[in-house]
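@channel sequence for tomorrow's demo:
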Amino acid sequence: MMVCTSSCQQVLVWRCCTLGILAISLVPPGMELANAQQAAAVSASEDGATVVPQEQKKTAGTIGNPLDIGIQKQLFMDQQLVATSRNITLTMNPPRRDGQVLLTTDQPWEKEAFVSVYSSVLKDNDRIRLWYDLMEITGDGPYDHERRVGYAESKDGLHFEKPLLGLHPVGGSTANNVVLPTKIGGCSVWIDPQAPLEHRFKTQAKVYPSGEFHMHSSPDGLRWTLFSKPHPGPGGHDTQSIVFWDRKINRYALYTRHWMHQRDRQRAYRAVRRLETDDLKTGWDQQVIVMAPDEIDWATHATPTEQPPVDFYGACVFPYEDVYIMLLQAYWHWDQRSSLKRLGPLGFDVRLAISRDGKTFSRVGGRKPFMANGREDQFDSRFVWALPNPVRMGDEIWIYYVGQNRGHDGRIAPGAPDGKLLTGIGRAVIRLDGFVSVDAGYRGGQFTTPLIRFSGDRLELNVDTSGGGSVEVELLDEQEQPIQGYARNESQIINGNSVRMPVRWQKHEDVGELAGRPMRLRFYLRDCKLYSFQFRTEGATVAVAEPLR
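structure tokens (generated this afternoon):
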């Protein structure tokens, strides 16, 4: 079913602005108002605390209705696992970056081109595979450019090779690494677990000048053919569109752009929408806006226009364990610059958001950048664009990103060495599950989970106490009384840094006797960061959530 919206019928959504101003949004009929609900929830998070959207505040975790977590890893991305607490904070942990460019345009067929943002990466068996967006400007018009997708691969994720594939001519020669030619708007490569092998790899993008939405497929990620034209319907798709098989609903999910007030250029701004389908050769349904500027965003800067000072150019969304993570591409344009027609600074950075259902997202970390712009002299001083999808490397997650030192108006950063354009792909690294942690300070803190029911026979933590910190774990019954043998005074103090730290008590290393019994966990923390916990079964292999591989 194709999504259909009407411009002649509108729904008014009234919201109270944090400045006391009444804000009105016009939303097409039939579109769920997930972002309006999200805006109300997230408006209380200016101090950095992550707020659970109202529709997630259910009775699960109470007596008679425990949360069934089985052996699923539990992350502290929101407040779902915190029933009561004292002296703890939920802390966003930005990844570390070294400013190193791992891939740029350095081959003869790339000499006039630069790396643009709609690039993507996959870990495929023992290789890290990169498909990168090559753009060459050929004139002043909007379609005066050549745009191709190049291919590179690496065994260690740091040193990339560009194989001579001989597939498509560039400048009269096929001695190059181009896998998708002509005016295609970049790529977003993913592996379709439902597809036959000849269509295992897929990518989708807007093509120029027709503006159509094309999906290509490939058996190997190198030889691509047109698979379908599954248009997302009105609202736009001029961004990097993300598609994956959503195992929670057994359908395909698409995240792409939606222009709010699309027909009014003076008011139009960018949002992110989600759609679903059973068949990638037909249309999409279940459209919902999942991220749009809200009152807090509008209040960050005054602008001389009717548009917000920030909107959202795109979003890298992916399932991770039992949640959905969004690396949101914030696009800033609020500064009046007298010598130019467009508002500055016209740069991108990455913000972090979390969802339990893939539709209602809450921003975390007090809306601070998850991946900020680099220094004025670095290649990523204006653009930081997270690639789909992050890659698991051992006990780390590597987030590849495109960086540029040129704003969206073509202005190169004043601090650029010799005034030169710098573009390329870099890397950001966090520990496994390291997006958000429960932190306690030097004086200590504690929190108690809702009522849960688990499977397995041992408990492990992803924790970092450094030298002087500690964790103690107490198991409580339904009346919040310590279970004999698992009380705090029977817990072995944990000190160390591990993604799989075992929890033990004086007389118990195995918690299998409590499996299936409703209970709560109480964590006593001091000077440490707790990222996740998981009940495990000895010897069992725990699958890594797709699409992280």
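heads up for whoever presents: Helices lie at 34-42, 295-298.
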